[in-house]
Amino acid sequence: MDIRRLSPELSVSPQIRAEDVRAIAEAGYRTLICNRPDGEGNDQPLFREIAERAREQGLEAHYLPVESGKVTDEQAREFGALLARAPKPVLAWCRTGTRSTTLWALSQAQAGALSLPQIVEQASQAGYDLQGVVRRIANGGRTALDTVDARHDVVIVGGGAAGIAVASSLLARAPSLDIAIIDPADVHYYQPGWTLVGAGVFDPRTTARTMASVLPRGVHWIKAAVAAFEPEQDLVILDGCRVVAYQQLVVCPGLKLDWHAIEGLPGTLGRHGVTSNYRYDLAPYTWQLVRELRGGRAVFTQPPMPIKCAGAPQKAMYLSADHWRRSGVLRDIDIQFCTAGAVLFGVPDYVPTLMEYVQAYGIHLDFGETLVAVDGPARKAVFNAAQPDGSSREVVREFDLLHVVPPQKAPDFIRVSPLADATGWLDLDPATLRHKRYANIFGLGDVGNTSNAKTAAAARKQAPVVAHNVLAARGAVRGEAHYDGYGSCPLTVERGRIVLAEFLYGGKLAPSFPSWLIDGRRPSRLAWYLKERILPPLYWQAMLKGREWMAQPELVA
């Protein structure tokens, strides 16, 4: 038997036989549901045979036959009602288990019990692909009309830095292009500024603008969330089952901060000394905690890669330590950096300078430690510490200040889509940023599986590459643009000084300035001026406006 669990209440399987029923009962199942019509196959036992064995074993048995490929809305409702009243757990079967899984998926959507990504992901984990019915799931488990609500030349999923930048770069090259951006958010954030909000340098309000004010003129704004993709039909399915058709698709919705992956964290964020510069509303709380702390233990965490801006966890730590040094209390504060990684920073050239600051601030480094739980009221953090022999042990640390960086993954609707790779990230060619399987789909920003750093600087370089290659795919321009993996991480090692890390794929250094002006391997006042005064207006007035200063794409014949 090949029994696969969809939920705690329901498992599905291919065709079972009468002689299997005893083992099924011994495994704890209390109800059987047959979704395969009798006589469908020459080697198929009749439902009556199985039902008799089920009664002998004290199991309920129900017959809800469904013709292959023709699950109706009413059958899904019947399945949901049967599942609700049947003794649990339940085992349903058909020829392969697919019809039973489809019935479950549509019934869950009809009841509003699970979201589309949850339904698709649970089915996928059991080995069943529901892409053929995602539109029905998005439509609340009901048959959707095969109509298209909107058509555009280019559809961009995501109105963050990457999405707006690529839209502006496209319009700068082809002003008449019909472009739509899909994003449900009302506010657009300059996220690189939150590090300085957490250090009292920036007012948080300067990092936020309305989405309507930053969208390029002439772009259609579809204010909705994406539910699913149908790349074979060139369609995007929105929540509520609205359908948007495209000729080229650009996918850049960013990533998901998985706060719930750390036990106890959601209930204590913003309280009990627990904060994070990765959230707009919490960065001011970081600065409040830093100002108020006069002694005790400050713990800064970093989860496994990939994460948005790999240097950000350290930036918060260095700026906090610098404030405590300037306030004369640094010697009374035990600073600990607990990182899941094995090194301080992924590009070795910058590590010596960072280590100088680690030593100067008296920071204790704990490598191979992943935050797994937080008890805010008790001021305790629990870590899973990797051991040299491959095992792990639990480490509990008390804290007065805990700066948390949550684990990060692709958005749910990306992870369960045909566009994702095996790990859930958007599957892109690292040079052209074209999807590896669908020639008219491109991607950029944090959602991609390319090995570059996930930073706004990377998106600024990627946007012109994608813009050119989209137009090349439309036959409007010649040549192919390549992205070299450029990323930048201004490491704020103290107030007024920055180590300006710039690098390409493979960690190759890629300085934008001559070393006599800014040596990126050493702390620089000019680099701080760049971060504080130049980069914000460069973001708002250049990157988001399609002005590609120092970001022109490299073309390959």
Automatic annotation (TrEMBL):
Q: Which residues form the FAD/NAD(P)-binding domain?
A: 152-266
Which of UniProt's keywords are assigned here?
FAD, Flavoprotein, Oxidoreductase, Quinone, Transit peptide
Record-annotated membrane-spanning stretches: none
GO BP terms, alphabetized: sulfide oxidation, using sulfide:quinone oxidoreductase
Question: What cofactor is this protein dependent on?
Answer: FAD
Query: What Gene3D superfamilies does the annotation carry?
Result: FAD/NAD(P)-binding domain, Protein tyrosine phosphatase superfamily
Tell whether Transit peptide is among the UniProt keywords: yes
Source organism superkingdom: Bacteria
**MF GO annotations:** FAD binding; hydrolase activity; quinone binding; sulfide:quinone oxidoreductase activity
UniProt cross-references to InterPro entries, sorted A to Z: BLH_phosphatase-like, FAD/NAD-bd_sf, FAD/NAD-binding_dom, Prot-tyrosine_phosphatase-like, Sulphide_quinone_reductase
Q: Could you list the residue ranges forming a coiled coil in this record?
A: none
Domain called Beta-lactamase hydrolase-like protein phosphatase-like: residue spans? 2-110
Pfam families from the entry? BLH_phosphatase, Pyr_redox_2
Is Transit peptide tagged as a keyword? Answer: yes
What NCBIfam families does the record point to? TIGR01244 family sulfur transferase
What is the protein's name according to its record? TIGR01244 family phosphatase
